[in-house]
């Protein structure tokens, strides 16, 4: 420590045990600490080091906590946005493919469901609406023109099914009645569905944005062991018949 004194003084002891050295030329007195004073001043160095270390650890902890919060909140949002973007991109590809190539559903049991629940009556039956939103009809129906369109179905094979118990009894009649329903629906909703009997007609209906309707016979027992009935079904528009269901076809 350097002190500038106003008058010359002799060297004397300081309270801290140091000594004053008197320089006459520049009238400056230099205080020289003793070894005990050195120890006192350096004793606080570990404390300063510990304080700095604690501050550094607290800063790092806050930083890491912030990173964890950002990751926990931001990462799921980013992944969801990325997933949504990828899903929409894939759906666009699917829609483009289905706009060019008709998706054909080869089997639909709507006709039998209509027989069981409405006796094949179409009056008051809104087949062109989304029946899942109808509190009265919804639970019974999984098919309607609205959802077929939403699902990008290009062509639908309606299944004309009758139980094996009708074999050799009224199987032919029951099959004809269900074929009749397909024709009636096509007449009732001409801008939504069209009865087709060939691949060319199917492709044309798809280009026109209309559901191509076809039907098949589910089970050979429906023809009553008569090839004439089979040929008649074909003339009416049937384009496939499964050989058997759960009963033998003679």
From TrEMBL:
One example GO MF annotation: metal ion binding
Any one cellular-component term (Gene Ontology): side of membrane
Chain segments carrying region Disordered: 14-46
Catalyzed reactions: an L-aminoacyl-L-amino acid + H2O = 2 an L-alpha-amino acid
Bias kind Polar residues: ranges: 29-46
Subcellular location: Membrane
UniProt key word Nuclease: no
Membrane topology reported for the UniProt record: Lipid-anchor; GPI-anchor
Enzyme Commission code(s) on record: 3.4.13.19
Family matches, as SUPFAM superfamilies: Metallo-dependent hydrolases
Family annotation (Pfam families): Peptidase_M19
Claim: Transferase is one of the keywords in the record: no
Cofactor: Zn(2+)
Main localization of the protein described in the UniProt heading: membrane
Family (UniProt): Belongs to the metallo-dependent hydrolases superfamily. Peptidase M19 family.
PANTHER family named in the record: DIPEPTIDASE, MICROSOMAL DIPEPTIDASE
Record-given protein name: Dipeptidase
């Amino acid at each position: 420590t350097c002190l500038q004194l106003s008058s010359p003084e002799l060297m004397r002891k300081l309270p801290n045990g140091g000594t004053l050295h008197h320089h006459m030329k520049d009238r400056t007195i230099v205080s020289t600490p003793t070894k005990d004073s050195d120890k006192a001043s350096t004793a606080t160095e570990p404390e300063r080091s510990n304080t700095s270390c604690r501050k550094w650890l607290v800063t790092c902890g806050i930083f890491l906590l912030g990173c964890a919060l950002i990751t926990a909140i931001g990462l799921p949002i980013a992944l969801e946005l990325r997933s949504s973007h990828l899903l929409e991109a894939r759906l666009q590809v699917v829609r483009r493919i289905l706009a060019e190539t008709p998706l054909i559903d080869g089997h639909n049991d709507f006709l039998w469901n209509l027989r069981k629940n409405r006796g094949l009556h179409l009056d008051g039956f809104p087949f062109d609406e989304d029946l899942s939103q109808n509190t009265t009809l919804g639970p019974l129906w999984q098919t309607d023109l609205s959802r077929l369109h939403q699902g990008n179905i290009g062509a639908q094979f309606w299944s004309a099914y009758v139980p094996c118990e009708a074999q050799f009894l009224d199987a032919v009649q029951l099959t004809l009645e269900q074929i009749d329903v397909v024709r009636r629906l096509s007449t009732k909703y001409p801008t939504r569905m069209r009865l087709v009997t060939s691949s060319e007609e199917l492709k044309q209906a798809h280009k026109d944005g209309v559901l191509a309707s076809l039907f098949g016979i589910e089970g050979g027992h429906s023809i009553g062991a008569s090839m004439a009935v089979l040929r008649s079904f074909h003339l009416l528009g049937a384009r496939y018949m499964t050989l058997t269901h759960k009963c033998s076809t003679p």
